[in-house]
Design brief:
The chain is built from 8 helices and 10 strands. It is α/β, with parallel strands linked by helices and 244 residues long. It has a single domain, classed as 4-Layer Sandwich (Purple Acid Phosphatase, chain A, domain 2), CATH 3.60.21.10. The protein has a 5-stranded mixed β-sheet with strand order 3-2-1-9-10. The chain has a 5-stranded mixed β-sheet with strand order 4-5-6-8-7, with no helix packed on it. β4 and β5 form a beta hairpin. α1 packs parallel to α2. It is globular and about 55 Å long.
């Protein structure tokens, strides 16, 4: 079975469409979504709708921290553990972004769990946006964890493949019969200059992973975002951090 792995879409439907088109071209039949369809970009509703159109293909889907900002609460501090307070302009940005959502999109997102276990073709897969502690809170932030760090972060879970996102950094680590994968970010191209995702080939207990970098018109997305300044709060900051 060919499974498309997507994470951190961040309100960028152009990037998501490019990845889904590539999946279709490569014969992907099933999808796993690792969270963060919202945030950063300005087209949250379009991005959720595009994901919802593929609902029948989804064999696993979890919420991310950006969905938590809508359904739970905005954090007081950035996730970098620096105790730097969230900028008020960024708080206004999230309110603007959330206001774009329709009720159908809200209903879809609010039913996503934080973690999920899947088994297919003899392979156990654990998915989450980022490793959780015993209280359901995200563990310490490690941008590119080593094998030892992955084993520590996912301690207590029994799987063959562990899928997560959140950091936006591509990562694949194998060891001791375990396979830890972060496909990178579909919606934020600053690291790769493309929409990053992956394909997991699972057959008779064997697993192979393939990185996908789908090209799309990033300049168009940047130009559309810049046109929304100053209506779109923190737009320049988001572009500088995640696009340029």
């Amino acid at each position: 079975m060919r499974i498309g792995i997507i994470s951190d879409l961040h309100s960028n439907p152009d990037a998501l469409k490019a990845v889904l088109d590539e999946f279709d071209h490569q014969g992907v039949k099933k999808l796993i979504f690792l969270g963060d369809v919202l945030g950063i970009g300005h087209r949250s509703e379009d991005c959720v709708k595009l994901l919802m159109k593929r609902k029948k293909q989804l064999i696993g889907a979890v919420s991310g921290n950006h969905e938590g900002y809508y359904f739970v609460a905005m954090p007081k501090y950035a996730h970098t553990d620096s105790k730097t307070p969230i900028d008020p302009e960024v708080v206004r940005y999230f309110a603007w972004n959330h206001h774009q959502l329709s009720q159908d999109s809200i209903d879809f997102l609010k039913n996503l769990p934080k973690e999920q276990n899947i088994e297919t073709d003899g392979v156990k897969i654990y998915i989450t946006h980022y490793p959780l502690d015993e209280n359901g809170k995200y563990r310490r932030y490690v941008p590119k964890p080593s094998l030892a760090e992955c084993e520590e972060l996912f301690a207590g879970h029994d799987a063959d493949v562990y899928l997560f996102g959140h950091t936006h950094f591509l990562m694949e680590v194998r060891g001791d019969g375990k396979h830890f994968i972060n496909p990178g970010s579909v919606g934020c191209p600053i690291e790769t200059g493309a929409a990053s995702a992956g394909i997991l080939d699972v057959e008779n207990g064997d697993v192979e992973y393939h990185r996908i970098d789908a090209k799309y018109n990033i300049d168009k997305v940047i130009a559309e975002t810049e046109k929304l300044i100053p209506e779109f709060p923190a737009a320049k900051e988001m572009l500088d951090l995640f696009f340029k």
